[in-house]
TrEMBL record:
Domain of life the protein comes from: Bacteria
Organism: Micromonospora purpureochromogenes
Lineage: Bacteria, Bacillati, Actinomycetota, Actinomycetes, Micromonosporales
Class in the EC hierarchy, top level: transferase
Protein name: Gluconokinase
UniProt-listed Enzyme Commission number(s): 2.7.1.12
Domain Carbohydrate kinase FGGY N-terminal: 5-246
Length: 512
């Protein structure tokens, strides 16, 4: 029945996708619209907020038009950490500065090294890293002071879309918990963080729960989307926590692992917490459900690099042949370790400093060893994130995984072996958009609780670790971890020397 259908609106880094779901979890219609990620300077990653708003409107209008009747409401998911400066009339003065933007690296490193750095992380749930809005605000204050003074409101991309659709200037606790500006323990804007950023509370949207229902659309938005003006709009949450929900990983102890171009690992918890060393983030899903985990910059992008750099003759459809090459190398790649930090790294070290490295290279290693070591490096990095999740005091009983890598039996097996646990692969669902729809259904009273996700998501396959391979990776993991610390001085020297060296090769596009 169409009155039990919710549109999950997922505002992503490369596209917006809208999917219509009923309360049984069945996908009824979908549409997506892509848009570019602009990189006007090295390390910058921006988007046009007007283009993204237009994509949201087109997707909603298209999907709603394919349904036989009215919908129960809209519910939103968004890429986290974006930052847009608006004037007093709500007109953007800046592009949408995305999570992939690293212009604030110097500001983040300075804040992280200062005495309040770790305390800020533990109080706000957000690592002090250039991805986060807090260091970006410091960058704007220092590098664009005249523009900074003109900004009336600082918002994220979903906040901007909701403002245009409903005329409400709000942000949810999930998105706010990824800004570095909200106290996750009291659900208020953090006074010290705002002081560091050089802004006041009035410049930020009103904080609301992720299940907040806005009363409807403006007359202009109703015409543009083709929906009635009284269509309920559920504010929604960030795409990471909602991906857990979309995979059914909503109960304590169930970890969601995803490897797309980048990667992440998150476990649902009932109370906010960060580990003592600050290796994980803590973001809200609902008032009584949070996710603890870490994201990595380098997932499938590492396989893409290996194809370009090590097997260019394979052409565009290289993935299957590249994986076949990797399968010829033994577990552990003959003692070859790759630190896969091609696009710097996030969890668990949260530094923009590192670069990729091969260590242990000998005369006997061949192309297949280099390719396999790259895949193993990604999975070992996720194993470090899993260790940080455990260090934050979380039990890990089950791992569910999704993403483009899941098409590869080899990569599935390496992941299970590196994590040393069975990995379950759900069938079908679109992750964050399904999570947004489920959250909307709870907010609108169509389902009793988001816990139904655990029953709606069907497991397609479970991959168990090979004991011998798991033992090899367990023995290598301490070496993999130690290499980061050992190479930090080298990474720092390379950055210091960079201005005097010939230009680096053109960068691969930032992860999505």
């Amino acid at each position: 029945m169409s009155d039990r259908v919710v549109l999950g609106v997922d505002i992503g880094t490369t596209s917006t996708k809208v999917v219509a779901y009923d309360t049984e979890g069945e996908q009824l219609a979908h549409h997506s619209v892509g848009y570019p990620l602009d990189e006007p300077h090295p390390g910058w990653a921006e988007q046009d907020p007007l283009t993204i708003f237009d994509a949201v409107v087109e997707c909603v209008r298209t999907v709603a038009g394919e349904l036989p009747g009215p919908v129960a409401g809209l519910s939103f998911s968004t890429a986290m950490h974006s930052l847009i400066g608006l004037d007093a009339e709500g007109v953007p003065l800046t592009p949408s500065v995305t999570w992939a933007d690293s212009r604030a690296s110097a500001q983040a490193e300075r804040l992280r090294a200062a005495p309040p750095g770790l305390a800020l992380h533990r109080r706000t749930g957000t690592p002090v890293h250039p991805m986060a809005p807090l260091p970006k605000l410091v960058w704007f204050a220092e590098q664009e002071p005249m523009l900074f003074e003109r900004v009336a409101h600082w918002v994220g991309i979903k906040d901007y879309v909701l403002l245009r659709l409903t005329d409400a200037l709000v942000t949810d606790h999930s998105v706010a918990s990824a800004t570095g500006l909200m106290d996750i323990h009291h659900l208020v804007w953090d006074a010290q963080a705002l002081g560091i950023a050089g802004i006041v509370e009035e410049q930020l949207p009103q904080l609301v729960a992720t299940t907040t229902v806005l009363p409807g659309l403006t007359a202009e938005a109703a015409v543009a989307t083709g929906l009635p003006a009284d269509t309920p709009v559920v504010v929604g949450a960030g795409d990471g926590p909602l991906a857990n929900l979309g995979l059914g990983a909503v109960r304590p102890g169930v970890v969601a692992c995803s490897i797309g171009t980048s990667g992440a690992m998150r476990v649902a918890v009932e109370r906010p917490a960060v580990d003592p060393l600050g290796g994980v983030f803590c973001y809200a899903l609902t008032e009584d459900r949070w996710v603890v985990g870490g994201a990595i910059n380098n997932g499938g992008i590492v396989l893409q690099w290996a194809g370009d750099a090590l097997a260019p003759e394979l052409g565009e459809d290289f993935e299957e042949e590249l994986l076949a090459l990797a399968e010829r190398a033994p577990v552990g790649s003959g003692g070859l370790i790759m630190l896969p930090y091609l696009l710097s790294e996030r969890a668990p070290h949260w530094s923009a400093l590192p670069r990729g490295a091969y260590v242990g290279l000998t005369h006997g290693h061949r192309r297949e060893h280099l390719i396999r070591a790259a895949l193993e490096g990604v999975c070992q990095q996720l194993a470090l994130v899993l260790a940080s999740v455990r260090a934050a005091g979380n039990e890990v009983r089950e791992i569910r995984a999704s993403g483009g890598f899941a098409r590869s039996p080899l990569w599935r097996q390496i992941l299970a072996d590196a994590l040393g646990m069975p990995v379950r692969f759900p069938a079908g669902h679109e992750g964050s958009s399904f999570g947004a729809a489920l959250l909307g259904m709870q907010a609108l009273g169509l389902i009793p609780s988001i816990d139904v996700a655990a029953d709606l998501v069907e497991i397609d396959e479970t991959v168990t670790p090979d004991p011998a391979a798991a033992a090899t990776y367990a023995a290598l993991l301490p070496l993999f971890s130690e290499l980061y610390d050992a190479l930090v001085p080298t990474f720092a020297s390379l950055r210091r020397l960079a201005p005097s060296l010939p230009p680096e090769p053109s960068p691969t596009p930032a992860p999505m």
